[in-house]
Every structure is written in structure tokens, then in C-alpha cells.
Amino acid sequence: MVFLLYNKVLLRILVAICGIGVGLATWQYLALSSAKLGRQGMVDAFAIISFVIAAWLIMLTAEVVDNHYVRAFACLSMLLGCGVSYKWIFVLDGPTLRALPGGPQGMSIVTLGFMLALLLSLFMFVILVMRLVRDKQNLGRLPNAAERMDQVLAGASTSAASAMKKPAELEPIPLDSSPITAASSSSAITPAPAQSDRTPAPVSKLVGIGGLYLGTEFDLGPGEHGIGRADAPILLDKDNQVSRSHAFITVDDAGMASLHDNGSTNGTFLNNQKVDKTDLCPGDVIRIGTTQFRLEGRS
Question: What is the spatial distance between Cα 169 and Cα 188, in angstroms, rounded to a whole number?
Fold first, then answer.
């Protein structure tokens, strides 16, 4: 299910196949209509099939802007376009076109291309709606430490696992003592400074402790590490709540790091507090989109 919901390559392949179906249906329908009524028949046929062509062009636009809401709208447009043109192509013109020389074979190709575009659009629409609903449900959800502990220990390195074996060692994240708790509605909209009792120290990597990238590790060497949904060293392309260029982490030669929000739509959170720019410490929890990362120190 994750492969279907979070695979943009698959969606683009389906859009391409859908375009092939639209092309086949258009080619044969125009050819048969031209054979029946000449130039005027071709013009009328193009006006009818243009609903489907326009819907596929919206699909291409959705891939350019890389937005699932636009993709869902494009699929819905294709379904509506097929619904509008179906009566004209198959009910009104179909019987006459089938009677032409080569008509049965031509209409079979029209039917194949038309149904291919229709069924693929319906399939993609269902996938996209499920994806958007899932992302809305996960937006802002913080992981339960007790429920996630076994998964974190299994996916993290030996040093990270040893640091989290004892619940008492999770104290550097005093979420409950924070004036803004995970249940507070203002935590998602009110920027707040980082907690004062944190101890700056060199960092080594990010470890996913919740969300879509649970167990995933990203090394933090010296330099700038972009975080985003496209063209970023820390690539979170499966999370629709992450902006294209969401945030970045800078690490100096000594391993000291700082977090910078890059004007993201949904914000960047450190220890359950929204931040624009702040220094980082080992043990900090960073939330980007629906995923939480724990910052690991150097061993």
C-alpha cells in the first residue's frame, strides 16, 4: 500500500499510459469521423474528444507543479471528460462509424484507448484521495515513545540503541514540562525559543523516530544539509506535508549544528515548538511534515 500511495514514478508512468490511451482514441475517432463526413466530421469529432484531451493536459500540468491536489483534480477532470464524451462517441456516432469500412477495428481501438484512460484515471484518483486523507490524519501527530521504542531500537545504530535502552535517558526531551504541550492547539502555530536546559555538543546524524521515515538515518557531516521534497540531501519526497525546500541544517567543522526553516508552508518544529532558526543539541527532536527525527551526538 505504501508503494502505491507514495510512488510518484508510478503515477507518472500511469499518466503516460493514460496519454497513450487518449492518443489512440483520438486518432481513430478523428479518422473514422473524417471518413464519414469529411473535414466537418473531423472538426465535430475533435470538439467532442477535446474534453478528454484537455483533461490529460491538466494531468501533465499536475506533474509539472508536482502537487497531489492538482493531480486529484486532473483525474477528476478526466473522469468528467470521459463521461461527457462517452454518449457522443459510443452511443450517437458509434453505430454509424462501425458500419464504415474498417469501422469495427477502428472503434475497437477507440474503445481500448478510451477505457484505458478512464480506468487508469479512476485508479489514480482513488490512490491520490487515500494519500491526501492519510497525510491529513498524520499531520502534526507526535509519536508515542512507549509504542515506538522497539521500532526505534531495531532501526537505529548500536550507539543510538544503547542511548535509548533506559527510559530515564529520554529526559533531555521534557515535552510534558514544556509550557506548550503536544495537545495544545497553539503548538502548531506559535513560534517559541528552544529550551534553555539543553547542552550544546557536536552532532553526528538524524534518526527517524516517528512518521513515514521511522528508522531512517541521515549523516550530518560539516556543511549545509537541505531538507525537502525535491533536490535535497535529506530527501523526504514521500511526505506531502514537506515543502520542496522546507528547511536546512548547517554543521561546522566542530560538529556544532543549527536548524533553519526555509519559509516552509507547514513549519519546522524543534522539541514540539515551532522555530525559524535555532542551535541544535544531541537529543533534540525535529519534526518536518509528519516525520520526527532525533538528533544523535558524536560517540
Answer: 26
Q: Does domain 145-297 have CATH number 2.60.120.560?
A: no
Under 8 Å between Cβ of 115 and 17: no
| Domain range annotation of the chain | 2-138, 145-297
Q: What is the pLDDT of residues 164-197, one digit of tens each?
A: 444 445 455 555 444 444 443 333 433 434 455 6
pTM above 0.90, yes or no: no
Max Cα-Cα span within the chain: 84
Alpha-carbon span 16 to 18, nearest angstrom:
5
**C-alpha R_g of the chain:** 26
Torsion of CA 221, 158, 214, 235, to 10 degrees: 20
| Nearby residues of 116 by Cβ (< 8 Å), 6 or more positions away | 17, 18, 20, 21, 24
Give the chain's mean pLDDT: 81
